[in-house]
Design brief:
It is a single chain. This protein is of the alpha/beta class. The chain has 3 domains: about 60 residues, Nucleic acid-binding proteins (OB fold (Dihydrolipoamide Acetyltransferase, E2P), Beta Barrel), CATH 2.40.50.140; about 140 residues, P-loop containing nucleotide triphosphate hydrolases (Rossmann fold); about 60 residues, Orthogonal Bundle (Ribonucleotide Reductase Protein R1, domain 1). It is built from 10 helices and 13 strands. The strands form 3 sheets. The protein has a 6-stranded mixed β-sheet, with helices on both faces. Strand 9, helix 3 and strand 10 form a beta-alpha-beta unit. The longest helix has 17 residues. It is globular. The model has no long low-confidence stretch (mean pLDDT about 95). The structure holds guanosine-5'-triphosphate (GTP) and zinc ion. Zinc ion binds next to helix 9. Pfam families: RsgA_GTPase (PF03193), RsgA_N (PF16745). Keywords: Cytoplasm, GTP-binding, Hydrolase, Metal-binding, Nucleotide-binding, Ribosome biogenesis, RNA-binding, rRNA-binding, Zinc. This is Small ribosomal subunit biogenesis GTPase RsgA. Monomer. Associates with 30S ribosomal subunit, binds 16S rRNA.
Length: about 290
């Protein structure tokens, strides 16, 4: 028996990366009885048949995490890619992606991409999000900026790249490893090319213990998985930090008196657009819960 990681699953077959190469496997029937479906990212123990070098998944090791979209196990990190221009950066979208990654308890790296198009704006955004408590890398696949830093950050992680269409996710991945040869370019071209090819989720191997997903994470930006308004506070790092000093433990930092968060917004220590987005997400959760 040897161990490995599921890098792909197609039509009942699983492809396991092991020390002996990639082995095609089936899952034992017992998993179906237990309602356990092997996922890409699962670390497994397999038994290999001597005859044809295919195998059976005998055991699935306990998952450290499980993403819903895409359905992948053991993802440790989200790289949130936003282009500063083309398309213009939307901090609302960025905060939305951050919220989802925080909810999933992933390590988070913000990538401000296409820095070549607007260096000053890139620096401004970088400062805002560094102050909020994030690791931010400015990158450009065109100008070869920040690629080393990104590669280093990927080490020993299973990373999912998230971000709006056209932000440059595939271009960055191709820079990190030119052998990936992911399709890049205009959105319209991509959908045309992608029409007749079924998409499978695949873990791309960068180096030992280092994988990236070939498809974007958090494709739906629906946040109805959040059950209580009060949870939103914890998904904004700086709001969470300052919020511990509010007068009321249950302070939502909205209309309550003696709110430390509002004070820090006025002092400029919490960025106003972050706070506005926070209030908006809060309102959204409140409205979902009315039904
Ligand atoms: N100026 C500039 N353009 C870039 C950069 N990175 C990517 N682009 C361009 O942006 C477009 C979109 O890049 P992709 O890598 O396909 O974007 P994506 O995020 O993978 O897009 P989806 O697959 O639709 O989610 C392409 O035309 C790239 O040439 C960059 O650093 N600078
Ligand atoms: Zn408060």
């Amino acid at each position: 028996m040897i161990e490995g990681i599921i890098i792909k699953g197609i039509g009942g077959f699983y492809y396991i990366r092991t020390q002996d190469g990639i082995i095609q496997c089936r899952a034992r029937g017992i998993f179906r009885e237990e309602n356990l479906i092997p996922l890409v990212g699962d670390r497994v123990r397999i038994r290999i048949s001597q005859e044809d070098n295919t195998g059976y998944i005998e055991e699935i090791f306990e998952r450290k995490s499980q993403l819903l979209r895409p359905p992948v196990a053991n993802v440790t990190q989200a790289i949130i890619v936003m282009s500063v221009k083309k398309p213009n950066i939307s901090t609302w979208l960025l905060d939305r992606f951050l919220l989802m990654a925080e909810y999933e308890k992933l390590e988070i790296i913000i990538c401000i991409n296409k820095a070549d198009l607007a260096p000053d704006k890139t620096e401004d955004i970088k400062t805002i999000y560094k102050n909020a408590g994030y690791k931010v890398i400015s990158t450009s696949s065109k100008a070869n900026m920040g690629i080393e830093e990104l590669s280093t950050a990927l080490k020993n992680n299973i990373s999912v790249f998230a971000g709006p269409s056209g932000a440059g996710k595939s271009s960055l991945l191709n820079k990190v490893n030119p052998e990936f040869k992911l399709v890049t370019g205009e959105v319209s071209n991509k959908t045309k090319r992608g029409k007749h090819t079924t998409r499978h989720i695949e873990l791309l191997n960068l180096e030992e213990n280092t994988y990236v997903l070939d498809s974007p994470g958090f494709s739906s930006l629906n946040i109805d998985f959040i059950e209580e308004e009060i949870e939103v506070r914890d998904y904004f790092r700086e709001i969470h930090k300052y919020g511990e000093h509010c007068k009321f433990l249950s302070c939502l930092h909205d209309k309550e008196p003696n709110c430390e968060v509002k004070k820090q917004v006025e002092l400029g220590n919490i960025n106003n657009s972050r706070y506005v987005n926070y209030l908006q997400f809060l309102e959204e959760i409140k409205n979902i819960r009315r039904y």
